[in-house]
Design a protein that fits this description.
Blueprint: H1 6-20, E1 24-27, H2 31-37, E2 49-52, E3 57-62, H3 66-72, E4 78-81, H4 87-97, E5 104-107, H5 113-122, E6 127-130, H6 132-139, H7 144-165, H8 176-188, E7 194-195, E8 200-203, E9 224-229, E10 231-233, E11 236-237, E12 240-245, H9 252-270, H10 278-291, E13 303-305, E14 312-316, E15 329-332, E16 335-338, E17 342-345, E18 348-352, E19 357-359
Helix pairs in contact: 4-5, 7-8, 9-10
The chain binds zinc ion (2 copies).
Length: about 375
């Protein structure tokens, strides 16, 4: 059975539905379903839905998933349809029993259109909205279970970061893919689920593409390498970035850029406290990069919330008026990208506390490996 506090999360979601006058919430496999039920599965072609009303919660699942769903989640009833049945009829039967027609019904933001179509034809008089309008406010503040998982994920991510750093000059001559192997092996030896996303190991000019992953480029002496990766624990991701020159002398511009990004990271984290708007954290980090003369090269927002989704609210971006509050977890990750030359990014995760900020990452941030 799930270790997630499902009963508490369900009660909060049902209360929110009642408060908003929403008749029902229909979820599809993904982070929302995992958050509310404990059941985790990739999106798939078979109809697998979680239906929530202010008073009830129930699953509709393909027969071959029944045991898995019952084992993973305390939610009952679990309605089953078999291969060979018409799944659209099964959807119509479950939704018809709930008298949801004519009500406001929220659909998982990422439900595939083929399933949304079947729900809509079962409820022709309902009005539809997005699940995020109710769930974002719940998911944005992490409960104790989530905070414990995120802390552990950050610790294991830092361990992998130290293992990469320990390669020292030996990393010169390795390929980006070879460094990814070191990261994945280090994480595999821990109690983590695995890496939280396909690691970024971006050497030299590849580092100037913020979401480049990795390839066969060989790391050269004097070349900055952007290393962005994490370990996941119980579905909750670590996400941290360091930029390292494993041996030799980097260009002078790199030294200036790394200094600017280091100062921006500290200024951004310094700005975090309850009551502050998310946009103010972006401004604090960005103004440092601008003052160092690299403003044009900081081509993305300063950070993103982290939870069952690697990227989720609050987004630390200019103009975001979301007021930061205790339990929110997000990245602060300023970067400078000089096309054809190199990139520099530093990233830590932080938690907003009652009185300020808790930093989750403790691994070294300097550009020399040792
Ligand atoms: Zn990252
Ligand atoms: Zn990130």
């Amino acid at each position: 059975m799930s270790r997630y506090p499902v009963a508490r999360r369900l009660a909060a979601a049902q209360q929110a539905l009642a408060d908003e006058g929403v008749g029902g919430l229909i979820l599809f496999p993904g982070p929302n379903m995992r958050y509310l039920s404990g059941f985790d599965e990739e999106p798939m072609e078979r109809h697998l839905l979680l239906v929530l009303t202010p008073d009830e919660a129930e699953f509709l699942v393909p027969q071959l998933y029944e045991t898995q769903v019952r084992d993973a989640s305390p939610i009952r009833p679990v309605h089953v349809w078999a291969d060979g049945d018409d799944p659209a009829e099964a959807v119509a039967a479950v939704l018809g029993d709930r008298s949801l027609d004519g009500e406001t019904v929220l659909l998982d933001d990422r439900m595939w259109t083929m399933f949304a179509r079947d729900v809509r034809s079962a409820l022709p008089a309902a009005s539809f909205g997005l699940a995020s309008t109710v769930l974002d406010a719940l998911r944005i503040r992490k409960d104790d279970h989530e905070l414990a998982a995120l802390r552990r994920a950050a610790t294991l991510s830092d361990e992998a970061s130290r293992a990469v750093r320990a390669l020292g000059a030996d990393a010169v001559g390795m390929t980006e893919r070879g460094v990814v192997d070191v990261i994945e092996r280090t994480v595999a030896e821990t109690d983590a689920d695995g890496v939280s996303f396909e690691p970024i190991v971006a050497a030299g000019p590849n580092g100037a593409k913020p979401h480049y992953r990795h390839g066969t480029r060989t790391i050269e002496a004097g070349e900055p390498v952007v290393l962005d990766f994490g370990a996941a624990v119980d579905g909750y991701p670590g996400d941290q970035t360091r930029t390292i020159v494993f041996d030799g002398s980097p260009p002078d511009t790199f030294l200036a850029a790394h200094e600017a990004v280091s100062a921006a990271l500290e200024a951004g984290i310094e700005a975090v406290e309850p009551g502050v708007e998310a946009g103010a954290v972006d401004r604090a980090a960005r103004s440092v990069v601008e003052n160092h003369g690299f403003g044009e090269a900081f081509i993305h927002r300063t950070g993103h919330g982290v939870g069952l989704d690697l990227h989720e609210p609050p987004y630390i971006v200019a103009g975001n008026e979301t007021v930061l509050g205790p339990g929110m977890v997000f990245s602060v990750e300023p970067g400078i990208y000089l096309e054809g030359e190199f990139g520099v990014r530093l990233e830590d995760l932080v938690v907003v506390t009652d009185s300020g900020v808790e930093r989750l990452n403790t691994s070294p941030r300097g550009w020399r490996p040792a």
